[in-house]
Structures are given as C-alpha cells and as structure tokens.
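Title: Comparing notes on inverse folding

I've been comparing how different people in this forum approach sequence design from structure. To keep things fair, I'm posting one structure and asking everyone to reply with a full sequence. Here's the target:
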C-alpha cells in the first residue's frame, strides 16, 4: 500500500497516468490538502497565503462556512436531478444572475465550466446569426474545447489550428504591444475600431459575434483602455454582430471598480451575451451563459444539461453570492487591491517592468537585464514565493507575467504580508539572474 502523503510517490503516480500536456507551475507539484480563509496547507504541513485562489475560483474564502453548509444541507436532501426537473436553488440563482447581469430580458443557462459556457455562447451566437464567422481578440483565452480553442488567440494555448469556426482576430487586448501601442488611449481605441471596420469590410458577409475578455486573464491581466468595447459595440451594432463578454475571470466584483468587466466600457450598454464561471461557485464546478431572451431561445432543438445547474452547485453558489454581496467584497477588492498595487510599485525593482490591474486582478510583468520579457524570472519568482509560503500564478503571451488574484476577502494585513513575501521572492529571482 503506498503512502498517500509521500509527495514523490504521488508525483510519480500523477506523471504516469495524466497527460504530459497538463500544466503545473512548479518543478515539484504541490498537493493541497485543506484551506481556511485565504490560506491553504499541503500534505507536508506547509502553510501558504493563497494569492491565486485556485485560478480565481476561490472568491470569498477557502472552505467558506456558508457555502460548505449550503452544499451539505442540499446533499442531504437531493444530490442531483438534471435540468429535466426543477430545483429551487437553480431557479433562484438564475433569477439573481439575470438581474445582476444588466442585460435586459435576460435568460440564464447553467454549465459546469467556463469552457462549456463559451461553447454554449458560441453555439447560440452562430445559430442566431446563421454564420460560423466569429471575431476574437489577439492573445485571448476562452477554454479547452474544440470551439473555444478555435477563438483562443494566445498561441501557447492553441494546440490546433483546426476549428469549426472561421475566426478573425482583432487588435485591442494589449495596450503596450502591437502597431497602435504608441498612440494615446483615444487614438488607440480609434485605431482598433478602424481596424475592426476594415476587417469587416474585407470579409464581407455575415459575422456572428465578437467574443472578448474585458481584461485578458491567461493573457497576463492585460486590457485595452476603458471605452474600447463601447466603441467596438457601436461598430458591431451597425453590422448586427453580437458582443459576447467572457466574464469568466472578471465577473463578481473581482476588478473592484465594477461588478462585471464590461462595465468599464459601459457607454454602449451591456453585452448581448455574457459568460461566467470560476468565482461564482467558490470552487464548485459552475459556469453559465446569460443572453437576451431572443438569443437564448433561438435554438429550436431540445437541449439539456445533465450536470449544469445541479442543486448542489447552485445551492453553494447562492450562498457564495449572498456572502459576496452582503460583505461588499467588491469594495474590499477595490481598497485592498489599490494598497497591494501601491506596495508592489513602490518596491521599484528592476526586474519589474509594470504593475497593472484593477481590484484583486493584478499583473506584474517581468523583464530580464536586456529589458526583454523574462519567463525564466517568472518561473523563478514562483519557486521562491513557494519557499516563502506564497502561491501566485503566471501567464502572458511570453509567460513573463505574475498573476495575483487572491480571494476577495483578503484583509489589509494579509495584503501587506503577501506584498512583502512577493517583493522578497522578486529580489531573490533578480539575484539569481545576476
Ligand atoms: N474563459 C476565460 C477568460 C478563462 O480564463 C478560462 C479559464 O481560465 C475559461 C474561459 C475556461 O474556463 P474553464 O477552465 O472553467 O473551462
């Protein structure tokens, strides 16, 4: 009988039976056993301050008591029923999300992940518009299914160029890169919109939708200026093209200033379709699509989701949402996030080219001594941070951006402690490279 807490034994078994392309950040993967608040523990008894929240899923807190209680109570009543039957938590959650979405006459379809939510959104948009032509942003990430890989512009996450969709990639997701980087914000937006118009003119015909993250997540917590999507929306509206806002990372107050990422571009009103996942379940497998009724109802055929909207996940998500709103965690993300950004900027380390972000969605872009993107520095910071008891993420086109996204309940004290640990990890990584 093998010892389940022997890390080398578990790593060996993991590498034998799981695909080689499954990403893990560390040379020696970490086995997490439990969590509380903003902390997690591994099988060796090490405690970590969690600055990545299980890839932005742990929204309120680890093992959040209200969520755990709601799940346990629901599990004692009925575990599962599929969308063939109704459950009160599913209907209540749909009502609340429809209301919160800002989309008029909204309907909600639940899925079990962000990939599936975007897949459903693409299915709806292409069916509604009777076209398989789709616009997506360069450097984007939308999931791991065949259709969502087909709209993922970040090549590191697109293992195949085959797709059921014909995708056209648009500028605008990265402010500091590409042909328009030297322009003012207003000039950048105008140039991206003109490029979009030009693209549509060249393609002709019918384009179904633009799918875009308001702030690119896997792409390195990067975005165009506020107002970009409002300007895009005016172009899209002229052509009858739907705007799908992928809020898988940016939803539920994560960005502090707004409940949804699209609200930073609010001039043109809400998107036609919004997708969500990650934070709403606080770790439970939950995603979904919100769309105007005429779009949502366009599919003529029968549809079902065996697990989407299950009583367990919707009961847990309802408790999570209630806590998030009651405690004003969006406001907390805004305040604590600003302190964290301030502390990281103040450190003034040469390895850091930029600290950017909103609320508790903070990107730290790293460069080498040659001022070029340094993925090696990012890997080194992650390892040093682990030694110091801090978990963070990384991403970006070159893999050189640290991604910081703790649970939104992060206290000011924890933010200061985490900033100190991260600055020390950055100093150590900097020393490694000299
Ligand atoms: N969309 C965005 C913006 C994401 O960041 C992700 C995952 O990181 C997805 C979609 C896919 O979500 P999931 O991993 O739940 O399938």
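Reply #1:
Here's my take.
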């Amino acid at each position: 009988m093998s010892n389940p807490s022997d890390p080398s034994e578990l790593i060996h078994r993991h590498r034998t039976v799981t695909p080689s392309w499954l990403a893990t950040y560390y040379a020696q993967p970490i086995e997490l056993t439990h969590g509380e608040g903003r902390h997690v523990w591994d099988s060796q008894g090490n405690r970590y301050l969690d600055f990545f929240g299980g890839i932005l899923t742990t929204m309120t807190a680890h093992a959040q008591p209200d969520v755990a209680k709601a799940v346990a109570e629901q599990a004692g009543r009925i575990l599962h029923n599929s969308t063939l039957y109704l459950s009160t938590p599913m209907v209540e959650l749909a009502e609340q999300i429809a209301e919160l979405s800002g989309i008029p006459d909204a309907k909600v379809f639940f899925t079990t992940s962000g990939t599936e939510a975007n897949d459903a959104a693409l299915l709806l948009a292409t069916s509604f518009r009777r076209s398989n032509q789709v616009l997506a942003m360069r450097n984007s990430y939308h999931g791991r299914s065949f259709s969502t890989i087909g709209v993922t512009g970040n090549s590191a996450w697109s293992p195949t160029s085959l797709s059921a969709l014909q995708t056209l990639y648009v500028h605008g997701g990265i402010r500091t890169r590409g042909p328009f980087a030297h322009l003012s914000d207003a000039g950048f937006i105008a140039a991206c919109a003109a490029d979009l118009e030009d693209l549509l003119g060249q393609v002709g015909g019918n384009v179904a939708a633009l799918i875009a993250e308001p702030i690119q997540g896997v792409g390195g917590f990067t975005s165009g200026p506020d107002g970009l999507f409002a300007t895009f929306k005016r172009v899209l509206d002229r052509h009858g093209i739907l705007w799908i806002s992928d809020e898988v990372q940016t939803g539920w107050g994560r960005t502090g200033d707004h409940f949804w990422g699209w609200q930073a571009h609010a001039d043109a009103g809400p998107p036609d379709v919004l997708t969500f996942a990650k934070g709403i379940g606080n770790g439970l497998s939950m995603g979904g699509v919100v769309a105007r009724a005429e779009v949502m109802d366009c599919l003529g055929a029968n549809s079902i989701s065996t697990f989407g909207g299950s009583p367990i996940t919707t009961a847990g998500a309802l408790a999570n949402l209630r806590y998030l709103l009651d405690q004003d965690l969006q406001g907390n993300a805004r305040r604590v996030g600003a302190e964290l950004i301030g502390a990281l900027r103040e450190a003034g380390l040469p390895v850091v080219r930029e600290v950017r972000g909103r609320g508790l969605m903070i990107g730290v872009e790293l460069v080498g001594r040659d001022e070029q993107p340094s993925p090696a520095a990012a890997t080194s910071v992650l390892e040093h941070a682990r030694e110091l008891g801090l978990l963070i993420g990384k991403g970006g086109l070159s893999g050189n951006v640290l991604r910081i996204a703790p649970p939104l309940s992060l206290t000011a004290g924890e933010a200061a402690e985490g900033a100190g640990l991260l600055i020390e990890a950055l100093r150590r990584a900097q020393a490694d490279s000299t």
